[in-house]
Design brief:
The complex is a heterodimer of chains A (583) and B (390). With 583 residues, chain A is an alpha+beta fold. In chain A, 40% of the residues lie in helices and 11% in strands. The longest helix of chain B has 29 residues. Chain B has two domains: 177 residues, Class II aldolase/adducin N-terminal domain (L-fuculose-1-phosphate Aldolase), CATH 3.40.225; 191 residues, Class II aldolase/adducin N-terminal domain (L-fuculose-1-phosphate Aldolase). The termini of chain B are far apart. Classes of the chains: A alpha+beta (583), B alpha+beta (390).
């Protein structure tokens, strides 16, 4: 039997219908092929990916990676993955806080949760003790649930739960993790609700075995040194100092800040709601996930979380609001209701364009509350726009609302949005890294030249990162070269940049084939028409024309070729065979 | 892609790292849907095999010009498992430079799976990228810089410790003969003070080009800033000093905006120099002998040996120019803590294993002159110290 370094060797299956918890000990080759986190969770989803979210057999997957719970920097991450109720595509969310670390230390590489409890329930894990318990917390908002659990459970317990939005069937339902570390998109909170699962608590007191602690120290030093050398992460203008809201001024100045539902790309009142303005108003302190030295989360004096860049940008520029307190309140309310703030704000922006009515601070909040109660608003921008006969106003890809980066301002970003396996998401390839932040080197953001392969390679790298479960942000400083050394030190297996990229490729293509099996094709790998017909807001020496559709389609064809897909965007038989993903 | 391949091949030649023409001229390949090379060469048959074995989109291969070729071949022969320089560039970004004994796609790919740049003795240096050929260019340039510094540093240490052998002496002698003569002329930069953003940016771009033209930076990096009122204009992270147009960030010192997210990682250090002094411009380069001399120390038995770059407590200078420890960036051992007080007092400082900073008033003429003067003094000093032992 393989030595279990960097993993526990146990995946726990919890059937909520019966309350049974059954450990599984996967073969070592499964770990080598899928590593952990997003990769391994995708492996477990595949046999059931055609199930609707209401089907008890559709698994809800929570997985850690081999670095989770070790001294490797930013290792306190994990993955929640299932089929998205919002889009029907495979969807994952990267979670932090302390929950992934504690799950691993409790002895589990991951949880496979199936079934449907006969009554609202919670899962409580305390090392090897696993309980499925009925709960009276159904109907409570996330703050109330988490505070109630904190009062009852030991201090070193981590917590996750859903809010009223999920209970009311919102397709934008998210998951709260340790108060401030959820941010799960795609309506995955609704999968919890469909299983009658209100919350999960985890306490773990074990240790994660590391093969070569001294080598891990050396690898850690190299990664930390690179982080310290990163102006984006640790500089005076960086995320460590300001939170990811540091991006606000830069993205606005690059004329790629979505404004008025992406009808403009520059927000005149940016200085009133940027990170510096928030810092003046709310005097934040630093907060971070377990195992992280960047600590990009910022907590206001009154205890509310400062919104990250995407949430703040969408609740200001995209909905036409220059009141920072209204945006703060909206973001906080999303957290308590269990709504994905990016999708919620984008849906509000869509509604504003359809109705032509601006929000006041009161209507912004009341509309959000309505969104958590069900109806068209709870179904996201695409469903809302279609219901109103205005489908062109939905700024979505594959039904997932776009985050706060306008694709006319970065053509790699445009391609990445279009081909992303989870829909309107920049984090599959994070081209902001080189098109805006100049890492690892700068690229010309207004060209598709070379972008097809760049996006493919970046998708593979990020999938590997999500499978190791390191924070994506640290790859703005360190790279797979450094993380391969950390992973080798932890696991005792010989990892290289190349072997990590191969895991990342397998993970991404596995997601592609799952989407294809659910009917996704090249028509879904596309952007809203607006980006091909309307210019952004030029100025400040930057010209933002519409994207040339023919060049976009040529880049997408190149991507398909580079990725080993057919003309429909479906993995070819050769690609599947090469990656050991035969149907 | 082909345009980018040609651009970085030309930059390697312009930097003096390779010949611009002939069989030793750089080979730069780029792959999107199709693989293209900057020029035809029979070795691309082998090098193309790297694209099928590695997840990369670009490759730079170059047989370096002299004296770098001799240095690399010599160090590779003595360190067949890999070369480990100790300058900041290597500590932070390269880590080490693997040596590959064969010019075959299999052998080279095996090493490039783990590291961004490798040396193939007698053949050249190869580096790959996943974004653009600029990555390979930077890696090759950094490797050449790092091995140059290592070669001269090691030679002086061995001379001091009487561990030189005949081969080392011969190779060193040949390398020294191949060194270009030091520049002593000055460029005559625009005179200040500059009163608006346009003139500041133009002056910075001009100074940047001259710093490169005089060979005072590696990889064309380093950084440069100018204080205009309460705003610091500074070169962006990873920007080439010879291409600064469009790559200068205005950063307000009052913390009212975060535009400086893409600014040089040394923005904090520059800011603090300005806060502590009346200077209004700063130049930072990586002149080679300045870096070599910043690392040279006779105290073999010092308890900080091996951690000099962060823990040196000695008050070291080169003719009054202080040498301070400090790593890139803003961490607890970052140069942002050590450089500003030294700069504010002296208008110039060296960071151990990293490079040289100079400051001035109104325009870049004085900082440039000091950069050049200190580098030339360090070069003289190197050979003066060496003469004590050989």
């Amino acid at each position: 039997m393989d030595e279990c370094y960097g993993r526990t060797g146990t995946v726990l299956h919890i059937d909520l219908t019966t309350g049974a918890a059954t450990p599984e000990h996967p073969d070592g080759t499964v770990y080598e092929r899928f590593l952990g986190g997003r990769g391994l969770a995708g492996h477990y989803l595949h046999p059931f990916v055609d199930r609707e979210y209401t089907d008890p057999d559709l698994p809800l997957l929570l997985f850690t990676g081999p670095l989770t719970g070790t001294e490797s920097p930013t290792s306190g991450r994990g993955t929640i993955l299932s089929r998205s109720p919002l889009t029907g595509a495979v969807c994952d969310g990267s979670i932090g806080g302390g929950l992934p670390t504690r799950l691993k230390k409790a002895g589990y590489d991951g949880l496979v949760i199936t079934g449907r409890a006969p009554a609202p329930c919670g899962i409580e894990i305390d090392d090897n003790e696993v309980r499925v318990v009925e709960t009276s917390l159904w109907g409570q908002d996330t703050d109330a649930v988490l505070h109630a659990l904190e009062r009852r459970l030991p201090e070193d317990t981590s917590l996750a739960c859903i809010g009223p939005a999920a209970e009311n069937g919102s397709l934008l339902a998210s998951v709260a993790v340790d108060h401030r570390h959820g941010g799960v998109r795609g309506g995955l909170g609704l999968v919890w609700a469909a299983k009658n699962l209100k919350y999960l608590t985890v306490r773990g007191t074990g240790e994660v075995r590391v093969h070569d602690p001294a080598a891990l120290v050396e690898a850690r030093e190299a990664i930390v040194r690179l982080t310290m050398a990163s102006p984006v992460l640790m500089g005076g203008h960086g995320f460590s100092h300001w939170g990811t809201g540091a991006l606000f001024d830069l993205i606005n100045s690059r004329r790629m800040l979505p404004t008025d539902n992406f009808r403009k790309t520059w927000f005149d009142q940016g200085a009133e709601v940027n990170a510096a303005a928030l810092a003046r108003l709310y005097k934040p302190r630093d907060h971070g996930c377990l195992g992280c030295h960047i600590r990009c989360r910022k907590i206001a004096l009154d205890g509310r979380s400062l919104p990250g860049f995407e949430t703040m940008a969408h609740f200001t520029a995209d909905v036409g609001n220059a009141d920072p307190e209204a945006a703060m309140e909206a973001a906080d309310l999303c957290g308590r209701l269990g709504l994905d703030p990016v999708s919620a704000a984008s849906t509000l922006a869509c509604l504003r364009e359809i109705t032509g009515k601006d929000y006041t601070d009161k209507t912004l909040i009341s509309t959000l509350r309505a969104m958590a109660e069900g109806g068209d608003l709870a179904a996201g921008a695409l469903n809302l726009a279609q219901a109103c006969g205005r489908p062109e106003t939905a700024m979505t890809v594959k039904g997932l609302e776009l985050p706060a980066f306008d694709p006319r301002g970065g053509y790699g970003l445009a391609l990445a949005y279009a081909v992303s396996t989870r829909g309107g998401c920049h984090q599959r390839a994070y081209p902001i890294s080189h098109e805006v932040l100049r890492k690892p080197v700068a690229t010309d953001r207004f060209t598709f030249s070379g972008k097809a392969r760049i996006i493919k390679l970046a998708e593979d790298a990020i999938a590997a990162c999500d499978s190791m479960n390191a924070c994506r942000l640290i790859f703005l400083a360190a790279g797979l070269e450094e993380y391969a050394k950390a992973l080798t030190a932890v696991t005792g297996k010989d990892w290289s940049v190349q072997s990590l990229l191969e895991v990342g490729e397998r993970t991404t293509v596995n997601e592609r084939r799952m989407n294809a099996e659910n009917g996704f094709d090249s028509t879904d790998d596309d952007l809203p028409e607006r980006f091909f017909t309307e210019p952004g807001t030029s100025g400040g020496g930057v010209d933002v024309p519409p994207i040339d559709r023919e060049k976009f389609l040529a880049a997408r064809r190149n991507y398909y070729w580079v990725r080993g897909l057919d003309e429909n965007g479906d993995p070819t038989a050769d690609t599947l065979q090469r990656l050991g993903l035969d149907r | 892609m082909k345009t980018l391949c040609e651009k970085y091949a030309a930059k390697l030649a312009a930097q003096g790292l390779a010949t611009g023409h002939g069989p030793d001229a750089p080979l730069v390949g780029g792959l999107d849907a199709e693989l293209v090379w900057n020029r035809e060469d029979p070795r691309t048959d082998v090098l193309s095999g790297l694209f099928s074995r590695l997840s990369i989109n670009s490759l730079v291969f170059v047989r370096p010009a002299e004296p770098y070729r001799t240095i690399l071949d010599f160090l590779a022969a003595r360190n067949p498992d890999g070369i480990r320089p100790e300058d900041t560039e290597t500590r932070t970004f390269l880590h080490d430079i693997p040596v590959c004994g064969e010019f075959t796609a299999e052998a080279m790919a095996a090493r490039l799976k783990r590291r961004k740049v490798i040396v193939i003795p007698g053949q050249g240096v190869a580096a790959c990228g996943t974004v653009t050929p600029e990555q390979g260019f930077v890696s090759v340039s950094s490797a050449v810089f790092a091995t140059f510094v290592l070669f001269f540093s090691d030679y002086l240490n061995r001379a001091r410790n009487v561990t030189l052998d005949d081969e080392y002496v011969d190779v060193f002698s040949r390398v020294v003969r191949l060194l270009p003569a030091p520049r002593t002329d000055l460029p005559g930069l625009a005179t200040g003070p500059f009163i608006n953003e346009e003139s500041v940016v133009a002056a910075m771009a001009e100074a940047g080009r001259k710093v490169v033209g005089f060979g005072l930076v590696d990889s064309f990096f380093g950084n440069i800033s100018y204080r205009l009122g309460e705003t610091i204009h500074i070169s962006q992270t990873g920007s080439s000093l010879d291409e600064l147009e469009g790559c200068i960030d205005p950063c307000p010192m009052d913390g009212s905006a975060t535009n400086g997210l893409t600014a040089s990682s040394e923005l904090s250090a520059h800011e603090d120099v300005y806060r502590r002094s009346a200077f209004d411009c700063i130049l930072h380069g990586h002149p080679r002998f300045s870096v070599i001399m910043s690392m040279d120390c006779e105290r073999d038995n010092c308890p900080n040996r091996g951690r000099c770059h962060i823990h040196c407590t000695e008050c070291r200078t080169v003719d009054g120019v202080p040498i301070v420890p400090g790593e890139v960036g803003t961490g607890p051992t970052g140069l942002c803590h050590t450089l500003p007080p030294a700069m504010a007092k002296n208008g110039a400082a060296m960071v151990h294993g990293h490079g040289l900073f100079t400051a001035g008033n109104n325009d870049f003429n004085k900082p440039f002159a000091r950069l050049l003067e200190i580098e030339n003094r360090c070069r003289d000093l190197y050979f003066e110290r060496l003469s004590q032992y050989v």
